[in-house]
């Protein structure tokens, strides 16, 4: 049995190396690659992904998993070996259903689509991107049919990012969100004047923005010996091993929060990967449990820490040192309110904590409509703008500020967006548990002490890697399934105080 | 037959993609990778190289090459297909002799050795690097024995970088070099005072150095849409396709020529790869003919262009604009002499055109001694310092300025160094032919017109990729085998004028 297990681990380790090479090529593609390199890079990504896929769907892996089934059954559910075998089996069964040629085609098409999206966004012209999006959609529909589904075509795609989660569950969650948050946004929209954030819209030296972001990242415990930050049009985190977890940010010279909170957000993702038990390295368990679980960490650090009053009690003097001219006269309270100002706006990644989820909801609805062919690609910009109007009361003046703003669809990532809201919800649920375990959390933040929080997250969440699903983690850590209560209560409490309702 | 050819090309294209992925990982390793990433990177490089090697030594490729032998024989020697089959057969026969496990071991060991070298050089302590060097040597001796040799163990290693070249030929060349250049260095050493370059040792703003390097790179015709420059401890050029050819440089804040000429040098390499016929892309022919051929291009742009009087007649005003304080009072003549000043010094990459070759010669001799076990690794620093004394009349004060200065041995690259001198020699031989074809070359340089030169190089050399060996190219382009005449005449003419001998 040990021999089978070692054979399996060796094969998985090789595949892991290839997938991490793919990640390096992807990182370079989005940070440093000159435009001429795009065609060859698309080919290289397709080739490596194809090889990794071929190696993973090898009959030998199926045989090994079959022979290890009984052995795994005799081990504790949460043991390294049982988890490795269980999660690998889950991945394997899915991967076997998809032809390698389709996987290559998807990678190839999405690399081209990414370049097309980048140019189309620069020129704010959706029609240039439309044929690439259509191609991505067609391929992903084919993909979904290969994986199979009973309820809706969105299910197998969602499952890629959020294992075990069903579209119907997400719909239920968004019903609550819609019921609770759309009226909240309307209420607040009538009181926008109560909170001012004009002081955040000044000119901020880019290097100084970079430096204060790095300072905040260090404060959280992000390890720069095992990571680094670069710039890219769309911030992201990527991992080449638990000891090389990188983040990117983008800097707007005239709006301070963009880069600062992008950094905190990506740091949240990166801390998760840096905190995975080293013993899981080189296995498929060496990643976050799901995108929702991952997003819970980015949003926790970005919002529950970075947009909290205690954080700014500590950090405001540092910010004033970095930008004396812009922030000298800004009080902690003014800053706290400013960075939390709610206002319907065009760009998801800059949206406040409330409207953010409505951005997600509309993407979820549009993706479903596109995949179910209720919405033709060419009508997408119009449908986008209509939903913006319905949920947020505004419509973008052009495609760059609207339908072209996100990278995801260029990558062929349909089913990805809802995980952002699942992350927000889980983060709030986790945070209620953390506050019970660490009652003086606010005081610690006020003193710039964040390692207690990081230690807690490492112990209860990060360490496990991909062993559990999001719902398993919710039960294990908080004692209950994933639920919206904490999140809704958090939003109502925080913004009720700020906007007097 | 066409089916066989297509099958071969498809296989080679896949291998090409993997090798280019290896190149991306290597580029990142030397430019941006955080130190924590080293162990995983070593593993990833080993895995990918192993896969590429396995795919290349596949029996099927041998069978295809066998079946295509006759077809190739009926084609012109320089046709794309005949060349592809010929060069692939050469590579294949060599690769089949080396076990894949050894290839992986070498990649793995050299990735670790590179990290060790970087640290050892920082601390200037050779003993920290010695065990890694020993390991690299042992592996490369094993490698050489796999490839086989009759004359000396250096032959198969040299052949890796300079196909067809023999150690005995290199020895003959270095006999001429030693006979002609050692006395020249001695003559000039007594007249060092004739040329002043103190004005090059001032403080130069790093950003301004970066900018002027980019300006010079643009002038040569280097295409930044298909390339980019980054910083690394040791400058290099790497290629991920003919449309993504990158260079690196390093900047010394107190010595202007370091970054400037490193950029011109790497640009020379990069122009070669950017000039390969696009039809050769995705095949093993899409690279320079050999390292010597490659070095001829880097040295041609660095020295025959960048250290020429006509170049500085054009470029001096631009330099004075970039560094008015430092260069306002420096005449073209003073600049020309300054950047060509001959003086025995410690660091190869900063050496003048004459002593440079003595740096190479001693490395060639030391490598031979190490590989033939006439010199134990632990005695290397002493042997290094002794040879420095013998050929250059100086000895380095520490390992960082001596035996640890170059990256090559950390990569396990033994047999690489002589290609630098072969490049110098070939560059001079080429340049004599170019001057015959473009009689007004100097005038063009004086007007900042370098595209005539680049066009010539593209037409006569770059376009061919790896089709020919260095000696074949020499005959084809200059009408004669590789020979030292032009180079020695060039050095004597240029430096005889400068130092009055």
Which labels suit this protein?
501 residues; Neurolysin, domain 3; 3% strand; mainly alpha; homodimer; 2 domains; 21 helices
Share in β-strands of chain A: under 5%
User: Stretches of chain A where pLDDT falls below 50 for ≥5 residues?
Assistant: none
Number of strands of chain A: 3
Oligomer: homodimer
Arithmetic mean of pLDDT of chain A: 96
Measured by residues with Cβ under 8 Å of the partner chain's Cβ, the largest interface is: A-B, 39 and 39 residues
Shape of chain A: globular
In DSSP terms, counting alpha (H) and pi (I) runs of 4 or more, how many helices of chain A? 21
Distance between the termini of chain A: 63 Å
Element-by-element helix/strand order of chain A: HHHHHHHHHEEEHHHHHHHHHHHH
| Lateral strand order in the biggest sheet of chain A | 1-3-2
> How many structural units, i.e. domains of chain A?
2
CATH class annotation of the largest domain in chain A: Mainly Alpha
Structural class of chain A: mainly alpha
Q: Report helical residue fraction of chain A.
A: 55-70%
Which CATH architecture of the largest domain in chain A is right?
A: Orthogonal Bundle
Cofactor (chains A, B): Zn(2+)
GO molecular function, one term (chains A, B): metal ion binding
Catalytic activity (chains A, B): Release of a C-terminal amino acid with broad specificity, except for -Pro
Function (chains A, B): Broad specificity carboxypetidase that releases amino acids sequentially from the C-terminus, including neutral, aromatic, polar and basic residues.
């Amino acid at each position: 049995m040990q021999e089978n297990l070692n054979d399996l681990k060796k094969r998985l380790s090789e595949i892991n190396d290839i997938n991490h090479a793919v990640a390096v090529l992807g990182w370079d593609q989005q940070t440093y690659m000159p435009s001429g390199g795009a065609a060859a890079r698309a080919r290289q990504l397709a080739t490596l992904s194809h090889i990794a896929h071929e190696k993973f769907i090898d009959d030998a892996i199926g045989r090994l998993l079959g022979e290890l089934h009984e052995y795994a059954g005799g081990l504790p559910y949460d043991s390294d070996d049982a988890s490795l075998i269980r999660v690998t089996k889950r991945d394997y069964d899915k991967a076997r259903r998809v032809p390698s040629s389709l996987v290559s085609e998807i990678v190839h098409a999405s690399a081209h689509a990414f370049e097309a999206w980048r140019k189309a966004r620069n020129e704010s012209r959706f029609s240039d991107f439309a044929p690439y999006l259509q191609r991505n959609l067609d391929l992903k529909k084919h993909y979904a049919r290969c994986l199979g589904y009973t309820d809706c075509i969105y299910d197998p795609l969602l499952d890629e990012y959020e294992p075990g989660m069903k579209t119907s569950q997400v719909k239920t969650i968004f019903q609550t969100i819609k019921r609770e948050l759309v009226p909240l946004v309307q209420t607040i929209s009538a009181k926008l004047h109560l909170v001012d954030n004009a002081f955040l819209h000044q000119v901020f030296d880019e290097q100084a923005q970079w430096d204060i972001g790095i300072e905040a990242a260090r404060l959280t415990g992000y390890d720069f010996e095992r990571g680094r930050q670069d710039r890219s049009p769309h911030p992201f985190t990527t991992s080449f091993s638990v000891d090389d977890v990188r983040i990117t940010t983008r800097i707007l010279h005239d709006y301070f929060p963009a880069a600062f909170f992008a950094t905190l957000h990506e740091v949240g993702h990166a801390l998760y990967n840096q905190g995975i038990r080293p013993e899981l390295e080189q296995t498929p368990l060496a990643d976050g449990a799901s995108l929702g679980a991952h997003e819970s960490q980015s949003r926790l650090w970005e919002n529950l820490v970075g947009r909290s009053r205690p954080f700014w009690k500590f950090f405001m003097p540092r910010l004033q040192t970095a930008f004396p001219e812009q922030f000298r006269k800004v009080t902690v309270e003014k800053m706290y309110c400013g960075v939390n100002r709610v206002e319907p706006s065009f760009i998801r990644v800059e949206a406040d904590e409330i409207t953010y989820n409505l951005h997600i909801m509309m993407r979820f609805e549009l993706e479903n409509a596109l995949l179910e062919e209720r919405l033709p690609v060419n009508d997408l910009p119009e449908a986008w703008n209509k939903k913006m109007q319905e949920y947020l009361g505004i419509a973008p003046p052009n495609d760059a500020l609207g339908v072209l703003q996100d990278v995801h669809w260029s990558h062929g990532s349909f089913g990805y967006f809802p995980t952002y809201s699942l992350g927000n919800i889980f983060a709030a649920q986790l945070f209620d548990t953390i506050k019970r375990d660490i009652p003086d959390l606010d005081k610690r933040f006020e003193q710039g002490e964040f390692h207690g929080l990081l230690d807690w997250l490492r112990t209860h969440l990060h360490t496990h890697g991909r062993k559990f699903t999001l719902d398993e983690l919710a039960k294990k850590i908080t004692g209950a399934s994933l639920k919206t209560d904490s999140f809704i209560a958090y939003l109502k409490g925080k913004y009720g105080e700020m906007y007097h309702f």
